[in-house]
């Protein structure tokens, strides 16, 4: 595992970015994070970026079995050790999954709210309830981008950078609300009750 660390003034707030959460998503998340870590680090606190947590079997993070997988155990250990103040999980999706991810029926089908598209296929929401219960983090963010596509590289990097520039999740969400008011309104409506 490769860990990039950009140290600002002190350790806290500590931001943790994780990609390659399952399957072969590393192929997409690694180049994105490599670009992110070349930019300016946080002014205050630190950022730990794990571009590729795991490469191998795909188990959905909505499946409780994920927690028993190698990837899931690795993730729980990492979070337990670092106790991040800001947590951002980067995933990628196949174009065939797009409709399911953003569908209002996602709640009925999968028991979770749909993700919201901010720009150019970049979706945002909160991580799976399975991970939320296990990791016990405050407002853990999920960002999804199309697998294998680098067309939107600038956009996804800019969105991730928000979580480095701000000092808390609410502050990042408020920056995103200025940029994407209508989309972020929807995020708050869909996920508000889990946000603290
Ligand atoms: Zn994923």
Describe the structure.
- With 196 residues, the protein is an alpha/beta fold.
- A seven-stranded mixed sheet has the order 1-3-2-4-7-6-5.
- The two termini are 31 Å apart.
- The chain is globular, with a radius of gyration of 15 Å.
- The chain has one domain: Rossmann fold (3-Layer(aba) Sandwich), CATH 3.40.50.
- The chain binds zinc ion (ZN).
- Zinc ion binds next to loops.
Largest sheet: 7 strands, mixed
Which parts are unreliable, with pLDDT below 50 for 5 consecutive residues or more? none
The total count of helices amounts to: 8
Q: For the largest beta sheet, what order do the strands appear in spatially?
A: 1-3-2-4-7-6-5
Assembly form of the protein: single chain
Write the layout of secondary structure elements.
Layout: E1 4-7, E2 9-19, H1 26-36, E3 44-50, H2 70-82, E4 86-93, H3 98-102, H4 106-110, E5 116-119, E6 122-126, H5 129-135, E7 141-146, H6 153-165, H7 169-179, H8 181-191
Parallel strand pairs: 2-3, 2-4, 4-7
Antiparallel strand pairs: 1-3, 5-6, 6-7
Bound molecules: zinc ion (ZN).
Zinc ion binds next to loops.
